[in-house]
Design brief:
With 126 residues, the chain is mainly α. It has a domain of 81 residues. 66% of the residues lie in helices and 0% in strands. The chain is built from five helices and no strands. α1 packs antiparallel against α2, α2 packs antiparallel against α3 and α3 packs antiparallel against α4.
């Protein structure tokens, strides 16, 4: 039987927040540029950072949505010639990426790592 691992006295919430914020910023840039691949990959990095904090249902939902987006990306890529400037995306792909980002932001907020919104600050029970 293995001995339990010693637990660190400190946790990495500040580092986690910094990494998530960096990729939120990069995903916003990708979104503005209509760069579906950049947006998708930055959201996947955010998902990886949040994954240890997710409930099983959230993991499954994010996994399914990610796979759906991957299929849509492949369809979009097949419409373009190799080496062409690919910075356009269909409406369905945009909507699914937006839903993916919304899901991840909701999970982030539920973890308690995101700053409270002004109306949440009035709620003293949380």
């Amino acid at each position: 039987m293995q001995k339990p691992r010693p637990q660190a006295e400190f946790h990495d919430d500040i580092g986690l927040l910094r990494r998530i914020n960096d990729h939120i910023y990069l995903s916003n840039i990708s979104r503005l540029r209509m760069d579906a691949f950049g947006w998708y990959h930055n959201l996947n990095i955010i998902k990886s950072e949040l994954r240890p904090l997710m409930h099983d249902k959230e993991r499954e939902e994010s996994k399914l949505l990610g796979l759906e987006i991957k299929e849509l990306l492949n369809k979009e890529l097949n419409k373009h010639q190799v080496g062409s400037d690919f910075n356009q995306m269909g409406g369905e792909l945009y909507e699914r990426l937006d839903a993916y980002e919304e899901l991840l932001r909701d999970i982030w907020k539920a973890t308690g790592l995101m700053l409270k919104e002004p109306e949440d600050m009035l709620d003293t029970e949380n």
